[in-house]
Amino acid sequence: MGPSDRMLLIELTERLKQLGEAVEGLRETQAGIERRLDAIEAAASADRKAAKLTARTVYAQVEDLMALYRLTGPGGPLPRMRGWAAGPELTRFLAEEAAARGGARVLECGSGTSTVVLALIARSIGSGQVIALEHDPHYAAQTRAELDSRGLGGWGRVIDAPLTDVDLGGETWRWYDPKLVPGNEIDMLLVDGPPGATGPQARYPALPLLAERLAEDALVVLDDADRPDERAIAARWAEAHPDFTARHLDHERGTLVLRRNTPQD
Fold it and tell me: What sections of the sequence does the record tag as coiled-coil (predicted)?
């Protein structure tokens, strides 16, 4: 092999090497493109799922609102149900429970949208009443104004109940002044206060303090049940009150429902 042949062979070998590197680069580029396409497809799929979930949620909330308007009857628009207010799904559940009982004596820990709706239900049925304990004068005034604007003074009432130290089994809690809790029997107990900022497991005292006042077929509802504090409260309630059966409702913020066991249960 002459010098020219050797040079040609070296050149061909170098070009083949470069070609191999180019092919490998193309493969890597193709793999990168495929990964990006997969990521785009996965994101699009996630977006579609999120859009479907949002659509289902909105549709369900519209259904809940329509049901509430049927249950409450004519009386103007319902109060807002976003932000800190009880959502349409919880409010509908409470309204349907009160209606199914033919009217209910409801005690609420915390006042707001649900107070107004349950008062509307009581007026629509012609039986029952809702009484709300409220430690915040501003919210108490807002709820009273909502009740008064709808002529619901006889069906719903807000009690200014400042938080005070309450002793339970040697533990001290900040809770509504027990002396201000009405003495009547309770068919439905809605626990939506005090706020979590009051202290750890702030809503725990409701059941131990009021258990003896609950009707035989009483219903206890704990809002915001998906929060860690409320989950801990639910566990403590279940241990201390085995005469109740617990059920979790998959509402926006979670709802815990306790029903007292009856002999046939």
Answer: 9-43
